[in-house]
Amino acid sequence: DVKVTQSSRYLVKRTGEKVFLECVQDMDHENMFWYRQDPGLGLRLIYFSYDVKMKEKGDIPEGYSVSREKKERFSLILESASTNQTSMYLCASSRGGTTGTGELFFGEGSRLTVL
Amino acid sequence: RKEVEQDPGPFNVPEGATVAFNCTYSNSASQSFFWYRQDCRKEPKLLMSVYSSGNEDGRFTAQLNRASQYISLLIRDSKLSDSATYLCVVTDYGGSQGNLIFGKGTKLSVKP
Question: Could B44 and A96 be called an inter-chain contact, meaning their C-beta atoms sit closer than 8 Å?
């Protein structure tokens, strides 16, 4: 089975702290994504990556950065956490290339609270 | 920004009922369509892909109308375990591996 693992299920941080959210997938997928999910707003794409060291901005990249140094790992970084970044963060991966079906496999999510 | 619109519900139905969800999308170039299911406090998971000819998986039937840019999901003989939020998802541009756009979801609650 595809496994997408997010390092922390629950985090509580203070305003201004630097926050790292780690995501690892074990299916050799080319594509990886970071979403946030908020009530009434649905899933919103923050950043995505189609290859190692490659990144593309999604719909709401402000206040976030990402890193993809290895194919299996995609990290989301909040340089200076703010209260409006309190949310559920979901990492996902999918197969790329001509064999890609578009199916996303999600991690269990990281619920971040910024005080 | 390309959009995917869904009725948020909630749809409250008794066990055994048939329920239908609809979804409209704005990007006529979208090529791939999906229904995902998300249980409370869980991650979304693929329920089924939606093909042009329509497709069925047990009690679930998905239909696509490209002319109207409309997707539907029909659930027959609802079970308590069908209670979840159903997310309509389309590709942002042509091709199966394009960026996926998620609707905000339709909540279904199946009651005994």
Answer: no
Note the Cα A13 to chain centre separation in Å: 17
Q: Touching check for A51 and chain B: CB below 8 Å?
A: no
Q: B9 phi and psi, to 5 degrees?
A: 75, -150
Q: Please give the full DSSP string across B16-34, using - where no structure is assigned.
A: T--EEEEEEES-TT---EE
Report the distance separating Cα A75 and Cα A24, nearest Å.
9
Hey, what are A38's tokens? 């908020």
Per DSSP, helices labelled H in B4-110 are: none
Residue carrying structure tokens 């996902």: A92
Q: Does B32 touch chain A (CB under 8 A)?
A: yes
| Token pair for B49 | 């892909």
pLDDT tens digits for range A36-91: 999 989 899 999 998 898 899 988 999 999 999 999 999 999 999 999 999 999 99
What three-state secondary structure class fits A98?
helix
Question: Quick check: A24 and A105 in contact, CB under 8 A?
Answer: no
d(CA B37, CA A115): 31
Torsion (CA) B25, B80, B56, B64 in degrees, nearest 10: -10
